[in-house]
Amino acid sequence: MITGSHNPPEYNGFKIMIAGETLSGDRIQELYQRIQAQNFS
């Protein structure tokens, strides 16, 4: 989900969900590392 509104830019962004669970913290960092390593399996 991409969010946006009339609020300042720091309140806009992406929300990533897998199987109904929002990724944040360590989980979002793990996803970033997999993308960097091109590990898409």
Q: Would you kindly provide a written description of the structure presented here, covering whatever features stand out?
A:
The chain has 41 residues and is α+β, with helices and mostly antiparallel strands. The protein has one domain (2-36). The chain has one helix spanning 26-36; strands at 2-3, 13-14, 17-18, 21-22. It has a two-stranded antiparallel ribbon. Strands 3-4 form a two-stranded antiparallel ribbon. The longest helix is centred in the last third of the chain and has 11 residues, at 26-36. The mean pLDDT is 86.
Short account of what is shown:
The chain is of the alpha+beta class.
Order of helices and strands: EEEEH
What percent of residues adopt helix (DSSP H or I)? 25-40%
- The quaternary state of the protein chains shown equals single chain
**Biggest pleated sheet:** 2 strands, antiparallel
How many structural units, i.e. domains? 1
Strand content: 15-25%
Q: Supply the helix-strand structural class.
A: alpha+beta
Instruction: Give the radius of gyration.
Output: 13 Å
Shape: elongated
